[in-house]
Amino acid sequence: MPDAIAVLNAGSSSIKYSLFLLRGKELDLVLRGQVEGLYTSPRFVALDAAGRQVDAKSWGDGVQLGHEGALDHLIPRVREHLGADNLAAIGHRVVHGGMHFARPVRMDERTLEALRAFVPLAPLHQPHNLAAIELLMQRLPAMPQVACFDTGFHRGNPELAQMFALPAEMHAQGVRRYGFHGLSYEYIASVLPQVDARVSRGRAVVLHLGNGSSMCAMADGRSVASTMGFTAVDGLPMGTRCGSLDPGVILYLMDQRGMDVRAIENLVYKQSGLLGVSGISSDMRALLDSDDVRARTAVDLYLYRIRRELGSLVAALGGVDALVFTAGIGEHAPLIRRRVCEDAAWLGVALDATANTRGGPRISKESSRVAAYVVPTNEELMIARHTRTLLGAAGAEAGADASRHAARATLRDGSTITIRAQRPTDRQGMRNVLVDMSPESIRRRFFAPRRSFSEEEVQRFLDIDFVHHVALVAVADDAIVGAGRYIVTEPGEAEVAFGVSDQWQGRGMGGLLLQHLVAIARQHGVRKLVAEVLHENVPMLAVFRASGLPSETRHEGGVVHVTMSLQ
Ligand SMILES: Nc1ncnc2c1ncn2[C@@H]1O[C@H](COP(=O)(O)OP(=O)(O)O)[C@@H](O)[C@H]1O
Ligand SMILES: CC(=O)OP(=O)(O)O
Ligand SMILES: [Mg+2]
């Protein structure tokens, strides 16, 4: 009777869903499907893990099934499919998390209210994402629901990449570049080590080309810049969205054409992009099949904008090792991939035409200086992983006693670790971590080159009362591979520090340890976490930024003092 996790991705005109069974360390997809055309011609289809159709229904043209009707159709079918298995949680894609929701969160009324503030920032997505959550809160009040954010993966972007050149207070208030499709990029980052280990540690531009399209510059598996901004209307032209636009155009339309906010919203979100330019369709398939010159112009503009944005993202990375294509168009339109790669010949991309027609995974020649790949995305699996991790952490928190904290967690590359309270018997394991750390990692952790640690120093790491000194370890294959701790320095304030074995760095372990420490710290009334980090320790600083906690930084000598608020 395994536990199951259902995943919902509620869009403007469709609800996609997946059902996963938790089998040991694995999340097995057992069912997926969608109800599309919710307000035009609703159609339901369900597929099994092998992609075979197992259920279908059409309501007919003109039927307004709506989101509520679709969920009422889905819930009993999911229950029926589950049989004796227990539905443990529902994970959701929520497009906008703003400044403070970087990590997945367990949903409650208050969080729902807070997320409503972002409806105007993602009018095509957010209202539908939240409507599904709200409806399920009413239908299944005891069911844990977890929201996973499209913005989350980009929250660790360098500060400059997040800034508009607007007055500084606006940035502080959250008027900044967020970036979207983060669950898709996070999934790609998690599988890239298997696709090309060198590229996964290097620099890649990932092209998520679907009905919504964006591109992300990734270094060492982390996002450093992307084409979307404050909202998902920025960047590339899309099915019906215009992408980057001179703000002067909007002023002109308001001032000289008398258009109001709703009319402009409708224009830039629903009437522009491929549909607006072609006047024919928002669907790339229809445009590629058409002989109409307007269809050709729309496709040409789409490609021209990709070419320009690619140059910009490569500049942000200071070079590039690979392009990765994903999402509806990226995965299924060889012609678009061919033209993007031809446009990128100046960067050193040499396309393998046969491999491209076949669909990859590698579509560049062996001799190509910059590699190119097709990697199918899987936002739903990413959501299921996050949901499982969060439930694990919540289960551990319920124990209240931090010395009994233990939870399973999934790293960015999909591998599973255990995060648990450090035990007195961990002396040797802790010593092994120190031995495993390179001189550079030791210097970053202890601010000085060290060869050895005395028994007293090791003992200090082990003197933990789980009130004033809380320490967690990350365990993989029975070995301690990372550790994080906080020590209370004055009432309500504690200092945090982390150490991760070299071969486990760059997979998100620091972020997970922090997430668990924050949960414990909050329960113990800690309101402020302080960290001192060497200026050049960019990955550690990125972990703090990506935590989504409101933070302040102060630079002193070569050290950055980071203060994070837990209130
Ligand atoms: N074989 C194909 N050739 C060209 N474009 C395709 C093909 N299959 C799907 N697409 C495009 O992919 C888009 C959908 O991509 P998808 O990533 O599923 O979008 P979203 O999740 O944003 O709705 C469609 O609008 C269509 O234009
Ligand atoms: C954020 C976004 O544009 O999502 P989608 O591609 O699913 O429309
Ligand atoms: Mg999508």
TrEMBL record:
Pathway: Metabolic intermediate biosynthesis; acetyl-CoA biosynthesis; acetyl-CoA from acetate: step 1/2. Mg(2+) binds at N9, E379. It is an enzyme of class 2 (transferase). Keywords: ATP-binding, Cytoplasm, Kinase, Magnesium, Metal-binding, Nucleotide-binding, Transferase. Residues 417-567 form the N-acetyltransferase domain. The active site is at D150 (proton donor/acceptor). Its EC number is 2.7.2.1. Its main location: cytoplasm. It catalyses: acetate + ATP = acetyl phosphate + ADP. It comes from the Bacteria. GO terms for cellular component: cytosol. GO terms for molecular function: acetate kinase activity; acyltransferase activity, transferring groups other than amino-acyl groups; ATP binding; magnesium ion binding. InterPro entries: Ac/propionate_kinase (IPR004372), Acyl_CoA_acyltransferase (IPR016181), Aliphatic_acid_kin_short-chain (IPR000890), Aliphatic_acid_kinase_CS (IPR023865), ATPase_NBD (IPR043129), GNAT_dom (IPR000182). One of its GO terms (biological process) is acetate metabolic process. Mg(2+). Can also accept Mn(2+). ATP binds at K16, H208, L209, G210, N211, G212, D283, M284, R285, G328, I329, G330, E331, H332. It is found in: Cytoplasm. Its cofactor is Mg(2+); Mn(2+). NCBIfam families: ackA. This is Acetate kinase. It comes from Ramlibacter pinisoli.
